[in-house]
Structure formats: C-alpha cells, structure tokens
Design goal:
Layout: E1 3-8, H1 19-29, E2 33-38, H2 51-54, E3 63-68, E4 71-75, H3 88-116, E5 119-123, H4 131-137, E6 142-146, H5 158-168, E7 173-176, H6 179-182, E8 191-193, H7 200-203, E9 217-221, H8 229-238, E10 242-247, E11 260-264, H9 268-277, E12 280-282, H10 294-297, H11 299-307, E13 311-313, H12 315-318, E14 325-326, H13 330-334, H14 349-356
Parallel strand pairs: 1-2, 1-5, 2-4, 5-6, 6-7, 7-8, 9-10, 9-12, 10-11, 12-13, 13-14
Antiparallel strand pairs: 3-4
Helix pairs in contact: 1-14
Length: about 375
C-alpha cells in the first residue's frame, strides 16, 4: 500500500473543507493511506484567541487517531508556532526561538509516518518550516511543497515569507495552481502548474432551494478568507433589495443590516445549496497587491464558475479575469443580476490528487496552452 503524509493547517473534522482534505479524499480513492497532520497550533493558542480553533465543533483530539483503514489524523500542540507579532524587531528576535521550538516536537511525532511515506505534501504556511526535517527523516519519499497561498497575505511572519523560497528548495517539487505564485520560485528546478478542483460527483447532485421566500436578488459569499467586510457592508447598503449571505468565520461582528446575513461556519452541503440557487456570487477579497492568485486558487471562485454565477469582485481580481464584475463600478454592479448564468467545467479534486502522485518532472516546457506545464 502506498502511503502519503499531508502537512496542513486544516483538521479532518472541520466544517469548511480545504483543498488538502479534498486531496486526501482523492488519494484514498486511489487506494493510498493518508496521514493528515494538523500543523501550526501551540500552547500560545490559549493565550490569544485563535479563530481557527473556535470555529471547530469540538476541540481536536491530540495524538494519533485512526479515522478509517485508509485515513489517520495526527495533532499536537507545540510550545510555540510561527506568528507575526506585528513589529519587525520582535519578529527578528523570536525567529531564532520559534523555529526550533516548533520543529523539535514534530520530529519525534512524525518519525513513524514519515519513514513509511512514499509521498509528503507540505502546504504553504507553518507546515513549510518542517520541510528540512522531512527531508532528513524521509529522504526517499517524494516531497512536494503545495503553494496554496501568498504567505504575505495570510499574515505569516516576515521571516517566514523571506525564507519561503529557500525552504521550498528542500522539496523535490513545487506545485501550485497559479502562475502568479509559480513565478516566485524561478530558482527551483521542478515547479508545476496543478490546478485546484471541485468535488464534481457531489456538486452535480440536485439540491432544494434553501432561500425560502426569495428576495429579488440572492447573493452568496461562500468563504471569508481575506474578506473585505467594509466592501460587503457598502454593497449591502447600496442594494437594499439584494440579500447577502456570508458563510465562514468573521473576526469581528458584522454591521447590522436586514439584508446581510452572516451564517458562520456551515457544513459544505449547506453552502453548496446556497451557491447552486444564488443569483450572484461574491468574492470580496481585500484588494491588495498579490491578490490576483485567488482567481485561480479560491475554492469558492471555482464553485461559482461551476454553477455559472456572475461574480462580483474587487478590481485586483477583475484585472486577471475580465469575466468578473468590478463591484466598485456602480453601473456594472447594478446590471449584474441580468447577466446570464454560464457554467464552466472545472477539474475534479481527484485530478489534482492524481497529478501529485506523478512525481517525474513534467514536460513540455513553459507553454500557456500546456497542462501541466513546467514553470521555470
């Protein structure tokens, strides 16, 4: 039996199913055993609010848990984990302490799974700090750095952002679905474009309309990663006959408005039903430098495209996907409900899982029409 270890910031039992969990499903379907390792949590999570833990139905079980014959989860609290303190001097001061105190406990906890592993996939963020240790413990396993985010936009410590390329060099391959992100690893000899996916077998099922007494326009935002709540509140105020549904964890209480409903974290099936029957989709990412990668990497954007929803988005996303509607353009936004729904076929998560186990260098050389393509 082939064995994979996935190092991620996600949990097996969380409501919002991140890409690494879908990859785990795909590997299981191919007969692989998967050890899902939840990384990036420490005793300091008790000292300052950690919304990732607060969003869970229950506290994660420590140690090793056998979830099924093909799935194991592993979770440990380390003394510290990489956090940005918001001050350059403090960040530099704690870097030398944070790294060993974060990595050392995982060396013992991961020794068994890593020595048996054929494949190790390391997600961007705190898991990347474990990459050199993974190379030392599992030199024969194929090690892939899966770049799912721009570290500078997810509030990673500055020192981790600066070390990303060097740490990625300890992996055999860098995999990402975004050319924007891929271009940052020009020195790595094996960078591949491997697109994100959707769970086609699940989303193609029919679901009843969840909206009840519908409003003229039902707008769905299926996630709160990097959300610009000021933009959401402004849109709700400008369009009182549109009803806005926000799914996901918010760091602060949203403004009170009759047409703005914050559902919090909900099961995937609930979110999916709302997307399937919505009038419009909303992708209110903070319009910051580098946000363009979300046009290719956002799970919610791929789901919106599958169902053909017109997508309201900030200028930074519209610049790379002209089909999106710039919600800072009042006239274009008013006309959005009249846009036709044009479904776009999306790859399945199983396709991504299959590509991650194809470990030989991928040819041909860079070509915008090639899939997959080496990006160097």
């Amino acid at each position: 039996m082939k064995r994979a270890v996935l190092l991620t910031g996600h949990f097996a039992h969380q409501k919002r199913k991140g890409s690494m969990l879908w990859i785990a499903d795909g590997l299981n379907e191919m007969g692989w055993h998967v050890t899902l390792v939840s990384v990036g949590y420490s005793w300091s999570s008790f000292l300052r609010p950690d919304g990732r833990l607060a969003a869970l139905d229950r506290w994660p079980r420590g140690g090793r848990t056998e979830l099924s014959p093909l799935r194991t989860s592993l979770f440990h609290l380390t003394p510290v984990h990489p956090i940005a303190l918001g001050h350059v001097g403090l960040d530099r001061l704690v870097e030398a302490v944070q790294t060993p105190l974060f990595v050392w406990p995982w060396r013992a906890a991961l020794a068994g799974p890593l020595r048996q592993a054929d494949l190790v996939v390391i997600e961007s963020g705190a898991p990347l700090l474990l990459a050199p240790m993974v190379r030392d413990v599992a030199p024969k396993a194929t090690r892939i750095y899966r770049v799912n985010d721009d570290l500078s936009l997810i509030k990673a410590p500055r020192w981790l952002v600066k070390r990303e390329s060097a740490l990625a060099m300890t992996c055999d391959r860098v995999s990402t679905g975004s050319r924007v992100l891929a271009s940052r690893f020009v020195d790595h000899p094996n960078v591949t474009l491997d697109g994100m996916g959707v769970p086609r077998a699940i989303i193609e099922q029919q679901r009843p309309d969840p909206f009840g007494a519908r409003w003229p326009v039902e707008v769905v935002c299926a996630g709160t990663t990097q959300i610009d709540m000021a933009a959401v509140t402004r849109l709700a105020g400008d369009h009182p006959r549109w009803r806005f549904h926000i799914f996901g964890r918010l760091k602060a209480k949203a403004a009170q408005a009759r047409n703005l409903i914050c559902h919090g974290e909900q099961p995937f099936e609930v979110v999916l039903a709302h997307i399937a029957h919505a009038t419009l989709a909303l992708a209110p990412f903070q319009d910051r430098e580098g946000i363009a990668y979300q046009a290719d990497h956002s799970n919610r954007v791929l789901l919106y495209r599958h169902f053909g929803l017109p997508i309201l988005a900030p200028p930074g996303l519209c610049a790379v996907d002209p089909a999106m509607i710039d919600y800072t353009d009042a006239a274009a936004t008013r006309g959005a409900p009249q846009r036709p729904k044009i479904p776009q076929a999306q790859p399945d998560w199983r396709d991504l899982a299959a590509r991650l186990v194809q470990n030989a260098p991928m040819l041909p050389a860079p070509d915008a029409t090639s899939e997959p393509a080496m990006v160097v």
